[in-house]
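User: Okay, second chain of the day. Same drill as before: sequence in, structure tokens out.
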Amino acid sequence: MTAQHVMVGEQPEPDGGELPAYHIASVGRALTLLTAFIERSQLTVSEAADLLDVAPSTAHRLLQMLLHHHFVEQGERRVYVRGPALGALTEAGNRPPDVESVALPHLRHLRDELHGTAHLLALEGNGARFLMGAEWRDETRIASSRVGWLLPAHTLAGGKAMLAKLSRAQIEALFPDGLPVTRYARVRTPTQLQAELADVRSRGYARSREAHENVTAIGVALPLRPGARLMAVSVAWSDTRFPNRQECHIVDALQTAVQKISSELTRLGEDASRR
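Assistant: Same drill. Structure tokens below.
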């Protein structure tokens, strides 16, 4: 596996995280929208505004620019859908079959059952990419959707759950120069990470408060499938809303969801291979 390093500032963060030295806000927002359309079939102006944490008028202007360049198209009732230019970019992707249609109902069920924001993540180098999500909206808006973001895997519950599926040698190959420095990380050395991952393997799930100081998350990795990328499901809450006494129930719900998602993806892959 090729080592790939992720800097915390790589993804624009509306909550005040670090940004690239030459960050251009409009470009970052447009790229965030493009990434969201790769993982979602459609977006409304209000959904785009919430995702970017901008006014609806700003989101509308960005969507109109993507429309002009054929990255999106305008469907019924002013809903924006993927356009031909975006389709051409993603055709060669190595995305699991119908992952959105399979995973999204389970993420929504977790959101509604656990009253937290649920995400599907995939391992990308030594980072974790938020592929899709179902956001639980409350007055804090702290544990909000992170769809499209790429963050250091060792700081995320879902990221640690995926890393725990790898061998010690594979982990060392992902972090040859040590762990990326992050603001809230408790695990700061490869030795600490290996110990943390051993605990995750023993428990069968991961916890995290390291990606954001006011967010607590629990994550479970999908069972490994031949030829498939590592993925995990996580649910996050603001610290003040985290249901401490329900952790066993949360883990059971997550483990049920990942088993169902994995089984459905395996079946779809088998059906596709027979065609």
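The chain has two domains: 21-90, 99-274.

User: Thanks, on to the next one.
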